[in-house]
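Hi support team,

I've been running sequence recovery on a batch of backbones for a student project. Most finish fine, but this one hangs at about 90% for roughly twenty minutes before it completes. I'm not sure whether the input is malformed or the queue is just slow. I've pasted the structure tokens below so you can try to reproduce it. Let me know if you need the job ID as well.

Thanks,
M.K.
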């Protein structure tokens, strides 16, 4: 009888909106550029919402990341299984019981969980959702190059106060899917140069980073790699096959993706999706490759959140994941950022190497109380991922030394403190750089990124049966290239009986970037004002927040990461 009274009380809170709280009061709800409202959604229309349930033992989770990722630890490489992670972080019985009863009391019965039981995705009508989440008001929106349709609420939602210890946030209300990161660059002006190359191809990558024809996967190990795409665009198998026919003649390779997770779609191929797949599979040549593809229209409310949930629901996953998704830190709620960071920790304890692009806005810029500041990107700023910056050839027509790609993202987090593994490197940069911006522009005590870099512009790609030249394709491609090279190193480790690399940063910083070409010339862009005049941070000897420790010299990187 007491339980029934409690449930009735919860349901009464749903209807009255009293004694409630806002889990995400700081979530940005302004309509992103390129999106338009199509009006209120039909009350009987169905949508999906994702409830992030409060996890347990997060301090222990953080400790385990350190011990399995630190080469000096006896536990190095002894990664957790998904079942072990689930046993550690699974919400308490009280949390599971309370949330389930709250949903049942509101008539929400079509829900699906994950192995770790810390996410719950439910399908319900708009009418039910607006009763369940007072303040929410769902509208249809359309935007992006694919004219994606989503349902979102422009107003904040509330939850009963009784759920405060049990729910981190509800996904599918405010955050919009990312849009294309393609960005126009000016043509290089190098008069009178006879070029050795006219754009970046797999052979240029292999020559610059010192890979031989023998630096490919064996095709016999259980090694695998993956890229994740959150734009509503797709790659085409025929484009991949043609790309390998054109550029893969000098090394063993696979001409098809081993597995697509999600819906692949039948529309035109997207340049970005094509680039990610083609350069992951040509850098990490002859290694089994998965592609995580964003769902079709109306299905995926938050594709990045869905990808995180997939990681919590698959016991066997590729060892290396490359991801180009990113948002401004300040556009996301604290609850969302902290929970995503926990999901990245979970991946690290399982020995997954997660590589994220550093962004393509340089140091970024926004105005806070009338003053300009740099604008960090997330998840690039997470302490539990390896973030990849971008470079260009010093001479755009020759395979030369690399300099900073001026749009490559980098900087200091305003959310996460500097992790211990990078304390020495960042302190040295801050104390020695002759070109530091004013201290009011960045949080010098924050997690600094990127960690590494690779070539990021001028790539050739096959898309929709056409060879797209570098004059058309201008986008950061460094992440899949670096990811592919780490997959080759994993191949050597697995064949010699060692565990895969896992979370790379503690080892990377302990070894002071061994095996990487140091990039020491160039600055990236930032605020266009008189104080900084468009200049962000500049590269220099050692680690810097533009190119990290530098770009790969494969034979040396393999040697530095092969043992133990």
């Amino acid at each position: 009888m007491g339980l029934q009274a409690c449930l009735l009380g919860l349901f009464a809170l749903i209807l009255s909106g009293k004694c409630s709280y806002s889990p995400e009061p700081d979530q940005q709800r302004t309509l992103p550029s390129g999106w338009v409202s199509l009006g209120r959604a039909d009350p009987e229309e169905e949508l999906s919402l994702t409830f992030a349930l409060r996890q347990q033992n997060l301090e222990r989770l953080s400790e385990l990341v350190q011990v399995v990722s630190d080469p000096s630890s006896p536990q190095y490489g002894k990664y957790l299984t998904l079942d072990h992670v689930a046993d550690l972080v699974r919400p308490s019985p009280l949390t599971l019981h309370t949330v389930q009863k709250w949903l049942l009391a509101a008539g929400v019965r079509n829900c699906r969980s994950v192995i770790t039981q810390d996410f719950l995705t439910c399908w319900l009508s708009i009418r039910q959702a607006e009763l369940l989440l007072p303040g929410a008001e769902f509208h249809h929106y359309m935007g992006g190059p694919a004219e994606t349709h989503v349902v979102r609420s422009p107003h904040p939602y509330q939850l009963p106060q009784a759920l405060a210890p049990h729910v981190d946030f509800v996904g599918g209300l405010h955050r919009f899917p990312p849009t294309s990161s393609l960005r126009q660059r000016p043509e290089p002006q190098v008069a009178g140069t006879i070029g050795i190359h006219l754009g970046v191809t797999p052979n240029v990558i292999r020559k610059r980073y010192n890979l031989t024809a023998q630096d490919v996967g064996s095709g016999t190990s259980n090694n695998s790699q993956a890229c994740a795409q959150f734009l509503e665009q797709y790659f085409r198998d025929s484009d991949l096959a043609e790309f390998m026919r054109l550029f893969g003649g000098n090394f063993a390779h696979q001409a098809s993706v081993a597995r697509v997770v999600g819906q692949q779609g039948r529309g035109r191929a997207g340049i970005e999706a094509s680039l990610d797949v083609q350069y992951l599979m040509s850098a990490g040549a002859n290694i089994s490759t998965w592609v995580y593809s964003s769902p079709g229209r109306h299905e995926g409310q938050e594709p990045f959140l869905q990808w995180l949930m997939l990681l919590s629901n698959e016991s066997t996953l590729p060892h290396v994941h490359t991801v180009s998704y990113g948002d401004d830190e300040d556009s996301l709620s604290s609850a969302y950022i902290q929970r995503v960071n926990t999901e990245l920790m979970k991946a690290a304890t399982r020995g997954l190497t997660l590589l994220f692009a550093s962004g393509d806005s340089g140091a970024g810029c926004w105005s806070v109380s009338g003053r300009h500041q740099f604008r960090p990107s997330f998840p690039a700023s997470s302490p539990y991922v390896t973030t990849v910056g971008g470079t260009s050839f010093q001479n755009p027509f020759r395979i030369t030394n690399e300099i900073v790609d001026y749009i490559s993202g980098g900087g200091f987090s305003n959310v996460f403190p500097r992790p211990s593994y990078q304390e020495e490197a960042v302190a040295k940069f801050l104390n020695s750089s002759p070109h530091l911006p004013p201290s009011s522009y960045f949080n010098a005590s924050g997690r600094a990124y990127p960690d590494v870099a690779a070539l990021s512009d001028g790539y050739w790609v096959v898309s929709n049966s056409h060879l797209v030249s570098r004059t058309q394709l201008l986008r950061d491609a460094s992440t899949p290239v670096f990811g592919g090279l780490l997959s080759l190193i994993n191949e050597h480790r697995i064949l010699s009986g060692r565990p895969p690399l896992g979370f790379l940063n503690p080892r990377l910083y302990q070894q002071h970037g061994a095996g990487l070409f140091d990039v020491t010339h160039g600055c990236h862009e930032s605020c266009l004002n008189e104080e900084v005049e468009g200049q962000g941070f500049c590269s220099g000897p050692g680690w810097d927040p533009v190119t990290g420790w530098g770009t790969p010299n494969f034979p040396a990187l393999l040697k530095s990461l092969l043992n133990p």
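--
Follow-up from support: It reproduced on our side and the slowdown came from queue contention, not your input. The radius of gyration is 24 Å. No action needed from you.
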